Amino acid sequence: MRTPSGNKVYGMGAEYPSAAALYEAAKRVRDAGFKRWDVHSPFPIHGMDEAMGLGKSWLSAFVLGGGITGLLTATILEFGPSWFIYPLVVHGKPFNWATVPAFFPIMFELTVLFAAFSAFFAMLLMNGLPRWYHPIFNWQRFSRATNDGFFLVIEARDPRFTELETRELLEQSGGRHVTIIHED
Amino acid sequence: MDSASTIPDVIEGESFASAEKTLARVPLVLNKRNFSWITERIAGVIEASAPRWWWVAFAITSMVAMFGLFCLGYQISTGVGTWGLNHPVGWAWDITNFVFWIGIGHAGTLISAILFLLRQKWRTSINRAAEAMTLFAVICAAIFPGVHVGRVWMAWYLAPLPNNYGIWPNFRSPLLWDVFAVSTYFSVSVLFWYTGLVPDLATLRDRATTKIKKFLYGIFALGWRGSNRNWRHYEMAYLLLAGLSTPLVLSVHSVVSFDFATSIIPTWHTTIFPPYFVAGAIFGGFAMVLTLLIPARAIYKLQDIITPQHIDKMAKIILLTGSIVGYAYTMEFFVAWYSGNQYEKFAFYNRIFGPYWWYWWVGMLFCNTLSPQLFWFKRFRQNIYVVYFVCMCVNAGMWFERFIIIVGGLHRDFLPSSWGMFYPTWVDIWTFIGTFGIFTSLFLLFIRYLPMIAMSEVKIVLPEANPHHASPGGHHPVAAGGRERP
């Protein structure tokens, strides 16, 4: 879709006066059957995932995987040298199976370390970040999204997107400054 | 577009509003400040030019830091003999400072992780600065074990790297656990802190007036757009990082205490060390958080965000952890007597009446055990000068405590012929003072260039952030029909 001036259209955005208004509007857009849309707010709004019809974030799966990797790494790292490559006898203390609990602290630490890195990088991966350019930044008003603005943007790629009906939906749900956002 | 689906929520919103009234509490942000006030006030600190006091303070602290680095360089190039360590005291200021600094870090992680899991919303005003404090304290802490080994260039032996000597670290040693615990703690704290910073960096990017600021804040904001599809994963990541940091913070000081507890030195060889050290770490850390935030909130006029309620709650945590520490001190004496072990009994007698007697009387008894008991009284918790005095006592007292535990245990051990005293050299003293310079310089840089309060998190605790919040007129801003009410 292009504007009369020839710009490619990314989508249509509207600003809402409050978190509550944005929450209500999100439910209406969800019920209208849109799929490619998003809301933007300076902080996470409680209950917005349900209002948008999004389920639980499965980022936790990455973290579980990371934690298991960390535990296995520590196990190999400790048993490899201390058991096979370089068995170390210190002060004549035993180094048999009864000493295995002495390996637990490092197993714990590496489990946490790998899980935490997985949480961070999975967050970036699942959010498609870092992404320094985005068409939405073309919208002048949007800079308030990190301050006190509440925005709802429906993408032109959405099969239900039509200029008139989308505009009507956004306006009826209480949106202000309804604007076409250019792709470039 | 079935508007019927919104109707039940309006009713729910009204019942929520009435419930809000009956359960009225002191608001976390005072004077009914709105979202944009929070942004202006916190980002304004960074956007205004640096006040003169900042330059004066930074000049002093960075000079102290430089002298501390000089002392480290002198110690590394000359040898560990420049410190006062000698038989029988092989660990003194170095390890005392290490435990002192790493303990301070614990308050930041407790605030950011444990209070998050416990849904203590008041944490949002203080978590950013406390986490920054954690990172800087861990940096200061890491210097000492790194340098006290003597030949710093061999420090890579701590890492389990295959090498041509075929030498591996001893994975059963608490000292190696410490390496893993502290480095994991630092890495996870950095990730947690940075994850929290991303939305606020985006705020600074969107407000930046110069190109260079926009570029730099923009790079680190990663292109954050406040999108709810992003917030969904972000919140899950934040929750899991909090969940991971919670056992981590408890493990770090436990592992530090194992360095002592697994030895056979009287007063070190005890099973109560892990909880005793963790409580002491949180105790000392909260005192440092208050030490930093009480002046910061006054200078930058943040009293509406860091309210008397916040100080009151932190004072209560100091009271709780201070009492746990006091109990642990008492229990050590009881166990020394009850054990019937002459070395243990002597070591504790020596703690009170030996040559280091006043460290115990002033540091452990007065500063750590008695002074926080003032916080039983609301009047004292709400008097900023009393709070500051107690925090200063705790800051000093916790250093004394570690010194007594470490040096007190070593200087008179099993054989009276090998008894001795520890005398710090100027290098010992200035290396320690130098770490204060490093710590305060880093903190000053932090409040200058990064938001010292988590804007996106403080906004959540405002009543308007609630999606069921009724507008001040008592109505929903949007009626069920979708039209805006006049």
How would you summarize what this structure contains?
With 184 residues, chain A is α+β, with helices and mostly antiparallel strands. In chain A, 42% of the residues lie in helices and 14% in strands.
Helicity level of chain B, as a percent range? 55-70%
Mean pLDDT of chain A: 90
Q: Per DSSP, what share of the residues of chain A sits in E-state strands of 2 or more residues?
A: 5-15%
**Which class of secondary structure composition applies to the elements of chain A?**
alpha+beta
Can you count the helices of chain A? 5
Order of helices and strands of chain B: HHHHHHHHHHHHHHHH
Provide the low-confidence segments of chain B as ranges.
1-13, 473-486
Main sheet overview of chain A: 4 strands, antiparallel
Detail the poorly predicted runs of chain A. none
Radius of gyration of chain B, rounded?
25 Å
What helical percentage do the residues of chain A reach? 40-55%
User: What is the strand tally of chain B?
Assistant: 0
Oligomer: heterodimer
Q: Can you characterise this structure?
A:
Chain A is an alpha+beta fold and 184 residues long. Chain A has 2 domains: 9-56 and 134-182, no CATH class; 59-127, no CATH class. Chain A is 42% helix and 14% strand. Chain A contains 5 helices and 4 strands. Chain A has helices at residues 19-31, 48-51, 59-85, 104-127, 163-172, and strands at residues 9-16, 37-40, 150-155, 176-182. In chain A, helix 3 (59-85) packs antiparallel against helix 4. The longest helix of chain A is centred in the middle third of the chain and has 27 residues, at 59-85. The model of chain A has no long low-confidence stretch (mean pLDDT 90). With 486 residues, chain B is mainly α. Chain B has a domain at 29-152 and 259-460. Chain B is built from 16 helices and no strands. Chain B has helices at residues 7-22, 35-47, 52-78, 93-117, 127-148, 174-207, 211-221, 228-261, 273-299, 308-339, 342-353, 357-370, 378-381, 384-411, 426-449, 455-460. The longest helix of chain B has 34 residues, at 174-207. The radius of gyration of chain B is 25 Å and the shape is globular. Residues 1-13 and 473-486 of chain B have low confidence and may be disordered. Chains A and B meet through helix 1, strand 2, helix 2, helix 3 and helix 4 of A and helix 2, helix 6, helix 8 and helix 16 of B.
